[in-house]
Amino acid sequence: MISAALRVRDERPSLFAQVAADIALLIQKGSLRPGDRLPSVRRLARERGISVATVLSAYERLELDGLIDARVKSGHFVRETAVVLPRSKPKRLALAPRKVSVSEGVYALIESMREPTVVPLGAAQLDASLLPIKALNRILASLARELSTAGAHYDMPPGLLVLRRQLAKRSVLWGTPLGADDFVITAGAMEGLQLALRATTRPGDTIAIATPTYFGILQLVEEMNLKVIEVPTLPGVGMDLDALEIVLSQAPVRACLAVTNFDNPLGSLMSDSNKERLVRMLEKRDIPLIEDDLYGDLAFDGSRPRPAKAFDRKGLVIYTSSISKTIAAGYRVGWVVAGRYHETIKRLKFSHSIATPTLLQMAVAEYLDSGSYDRHLRHLRERIRREVARYRSEVASAFPVGTWISEPKGGFVLWLELPGQISALALQARALEANIAIAPGPIFGARARFSSCIRMTCGSPWSPRIADAVKKLGELCYELARTPK
Amino acid sequence: MISAALRVRDERPSLFAQVAADIALLIQKGSLRPGDRLPSVRRLARERGISVATVLSAYERLELDGLIDARVKSGHFVRETAVVLPRSKPKRLALAPRKVSVSEGVYALIESMREPTVVPLGAAQLDASLLPIKALNRILASLARELSTAGAHYDMPPGLLVLRRQLAKRSVLWGTPLGADDFVITAGAMEGLQLALRATTRPGDTIAIATPTYFGILQLVEEMNLKVIEVPTLPGVGMDLDALEIVLSQAPVRACLAVTNFDNPLGSLMSDSNKERLVRMLEKRDIPLIEDDLYGDLAFDGSRPRPAKAFDRKGLVIYTSSISKTIAAGYRVGWVVAGRYHETIKRLKFSHSIATPTLLQMAVAEYLDSGSYDRHLRHLRERIRREVARYRSEVASAFPVGTWISEPKGGFVLWLELPGQISALALQARALEANIAIAPGPIFGARARFSSCIRMTCGSPWSPRIADAVKKLGELCYELARTPK
Predict the structure, then answer these.
(1) For residue A190, which phi and psi values (nearest 5 degrees)?
(2) What is the pLDDT of residues B445-457, one digit of tens each?
(3) Judged by CB atoms within 8 Å, which residues 351-410 of A form the interface with B?
(4) How far is A357 from chain B (nearest CA, A)?
(5) Which parts of chain A have pLDDT scores under 70?
(6) Alpha-carbon torsion (A407, A410, A415, A416), positive or negative
(7) What angle do CA A168, A317, A179 make, to 5 degrees?
(8) Whole-angstrom Cα distance, residue A417 to residue B249?
(9) Between A7, A30, A330, which is nearest B357 by CB?
(10) Exposed end of chain B (fewer CB within 10 Å): N or C?
(11) How many Å is the Cα radius of gyration of chain A?
């Protein structure tokens, strides 16, 4: 290292100036902030393989420049009055609708999720007060305290056995008896969907997918260079199977992706007979069904609808789900039951992210084992049923006449179709200016349909703040309806 | 649901028999084990949307079949003597070398990592006793206890600011001053590498990569349908840049992937001047360099070599690293500094796995902030230097004359070239029969070179068990050398 450093010195005017410039840059970028202690002279010298004298010279230069102070016996600190360039400006959340692409609608939504001041009617997540996060964190805390070496090593695919056992036990409630060996644990359902698509398709392939559909899936599909045939979702009914039948007879579909229980955004529930028809229709052509059952535990009527996986006879249904909508999104724990693709998915999981965090899997397994989950679900289902009904009636009175509002049977999002060709992207932009996030319709379709639709999340308990936001959205709709197109 | 259930009843002989069969299957699969309690009659009825009478009939059938017992006032339980089919056989770890593909060498290695009885000379991970996992878990425990709602929500890309700030602060030690906004947090370095490859290539593209290289990268590249040009690594020197120069002048290389500091498996350190040459060579052709700096903190001489990223002037170097080799592999926390690809990587992270677990990022940030990491690194570098030296001298005396052993300058793996055309895959198979894992050479090359090489991890402190394993490996080499090919 010393020789390398010397070589660098030969090529450049002075090494100490370079070190000083590096640190000045860190101060400018805000990586080192006023009052922060700099690395000790000896440490920086050792780590960078340069002499103590060089570091001392660099620190002297920084002192002369007014950026740092030396304090006797305690080291060097960034000066409180150091001239720091302005940090990057707060992100502009608003969008100018004319310049907007669908992706920008997505990223504006994502950015808004990082802003606590924004009223969260955009992202599909439940307020923490509705989730059993305290209980789960308490379990995680005791596991982390007691199992002092847990998490040191990779927990290789298929993932932790205790968690897979808990999931297998629950499978009787889904009407789909599964063994622990049928599961692969993933970083949430999204990683599971991704691996399922990679296991069944190649770039350029065509897949069939319900529309409208969750924008994250559409972005993934775009990134994977898949062609998409959109099959309409019939509100209340789910994917239009007659339409799918026609699609399958005419296009070389390599996989079909469906959310059978309370799809996002429409909240429809596919009947058991339709699920069976869907599975049979695909198995006749040997086409895998990728089933996303993220909302299956959230039926308003308290039942637990079966997934299409329950009708799978040939291992062609790849079932994915997670705890993100019912327990904790930030734990990133999901699973895949992949049938004949099990080995492929296991291997893909390894080459994509190697493993899922050990302690988080343990905590989820213990939480499921505690029996609290069923109690929680009973309360949650009833709670979100009431919340969604409340949002629904408030939207009905605040929004322009002619607004169509979905009637979900589960889950916690509403889908609205606005009258008079109101632009959803314009509404998103205006709403963000008023610190309200919504999800604009165009991001739910591959071909930017749904230009006058929006998704509204009912994941926050009704409150004056929410009431104001819904009223404001209604007013914005009236304004936009008056704006000439 | 009731109507759907009735419809099912119409189609099938009896619903209760189906429910009973589902539960019997769960018992056979081991999802429900002797002594386990079954769901209560009311709960199962509610969840599956069937009548209480149907569930009662199903449970009666299972009692008659001798599979479950009803206990007064406490419910139904799997009978202790329930006839349970044998669980799936223990995985056979051994490989018959003739039928073996390179991938099977990898999966045998991965399977062996799930077996605590196997001596772990295969996977590149450190024994928990060498990692600061206790301190990290203690931090995680108090965060999970104190922040009762942390982890409820997605922490959207680029990831947690407190962690990105800590990483930015450390960047001065790498000679690469970075801001918090330069980082995207990923599920370990592997997800980072994956996203980097997806950001810079399309299927069918050609990339240049050092050989031998970590097999996980080769599997990923294969899955992504990339073509690979292998550039030799010169032991002690790193990627052969003269060879790379020729490759670049002749092939349409879209990206170059390199481990500049203590590459796995050779442990070479590329000099600063070579790093600069590498970066300039690529930037001249506008080719991105994907740099994997997983082992950069593990120099034996106590210095912290700069990454090639330090020489990046055009934002063409995508830097990846993680805590997996120095703190905890099972936390799955890594990062990418992507230069001009920053926005792309951020978006890919969202569509691949949405977010990285919140609490684990917080714990790592707090650990880094505590200052313990540098103390830990000082000890760890010295410790692994000694361990690697010990393994090296023991291998030298146990293995056949003519065995070439690498001389790493950091990290904790050795690369051996066996004499007399000993088959590494045959050695892996024989070693696994003796409960010893190694990584066979062929999995480190895209074209199954290195047939007589093995990688040996020195991640476990030297002990009689390790000593026996190394001696046994030496004996197996002698035996294989005598076996006619």
Answers:
(1) -65, -45
(2) 887 689 999 999 9
(3) 351-360, 374
(4) 5
(5) 1-13, 81-102, 448, 484-485
(6) positive
(7) 20
(8) 57
(9) A330
(10) C
(11) 27
Nearest Cα to Cα of residue B174 among B275, B267, B278: B275
Q: Which pLDDT value is given to residue B161? A: 96
Mean pLDDT, chain B, as a whole number?
A: 89
Cα–Cα distance measured from residue B231 to residue B221, given in angstroms and rounded to the nearest whole number: 15
B41: nearest CA partner in chain A = A173
Each residue of B20-66: pLDDT tens digit? 888 888 887 778 888 888 888 888 888 888 888 889 988 988 888 78
Helix orientation angle between A41-48 and A52-64, rounded to the nearest 10 degrees? 120
CB A359 within 8 A of CB B333: no
CA-CA distance, B185 to B72, in Å (whole number)? 53
Chain B nearest-CA distance from A270, in A, is 10
- Distant-in-sequence, close-in-space partners of A386: CB < 8 Å, separation ≥ 6: none
- How is the beta sheet containing A453-457 ordered, strand by strand? A404-405, A413-417, A453-457, A439-440
**Other C-beta atoms within 10 Å of B443: how many?**
28
Place of tokens 């309370």: A262
Range in B15-19, B163-167, B240-244, B478-482 with the lowest mean pLDDT: B15-19
Pull the structure tokens for residue B305. Answer: 């070599």
Single out the residue of B480, B457, B430, B469 nearest to residue B100, CA to CA. Answer: B430
Would you call A44 an interface residue with chain B, using a CB distance cutoff of 8 Å? yes
Residue showing tokens 């490759």: B247
Position A81 scores a pLDDT of: 67
8 A C-beta contact, residue B307 and residue B176: yes
User: Which residues are CB-neighbours of A379 under 8 A, at least 6 positions away?
Assistant: none
The residue type found at B448 is A
What confidence tier does B17 reach under pLDDT thresholds 50, 70, 90?
A: confident
Q: If you search the block for the tokens 């420049």, which residue do you land on?
A: A65
Structural domains of chain A, with CATH:
2-78 (1.10.10.10), 97-130+376-482 (3.90.1150.10), 146-373 (3.40.640.10)
Q: What tokens appear for B284 in the block?
A: 């001249």
Determine the Cα angle at B14 with ends B79 and A280, to 5°: 105
Burial of B485 (0-12, 13-18, 19+ CB in 10 A): exposed
Residue whose pair of structure tokens reads 């429809």 in the numeric block = A268
> Residue B96's CB: how many other CB atoms inside 10 A?
11
Q: Could you say which of A7, A128, A152 has the minimum Cβ distance to residue B273?
A: A7
Task: Determine contact, residues A317/A287, Cβ cutoff 8 Å.
Answer: no
Residue B95 Cα to chain centre, angstroms: 21
pLDDT tens for each residue of A176-230 = 899 999 999 999 999 999 999 999 999 999 999 999 999 999 999 999 999 999 9
Q: Is B78 helix (H, G, I), strand (E, B) or coil?
A: strand
ipTM score assigned to the predicted complex:
0.86
- pLDDT for the residue numbered A21: 84
Residue written as token pair 């990418």: B336
Is any Cβ of chain A less than 8 angstroms from the Cβ of B142? yes
Report the residue from A148, A216, A303 with minimal CB separation from B49: A303
Burial of B57 (0-12, 13-18, 19+ CB in 10 A): middle
Q: What angle do CA A137, A141, A147 make, to 5 degrees?
A: 135
Per-residue pLDDT at B82: 57
Chain B residues 213-252 with a CB less than 8 Å from chain A: 216, 219-220, 223, 225
- Are A223 and B198 in contact by the 8 Å Cβ rule? The answer is yes
- CA dist., res. B12 & res. B8, Å (int): 6
* Residue among B26, B43, B353 minimizing CB distance to A190: B353
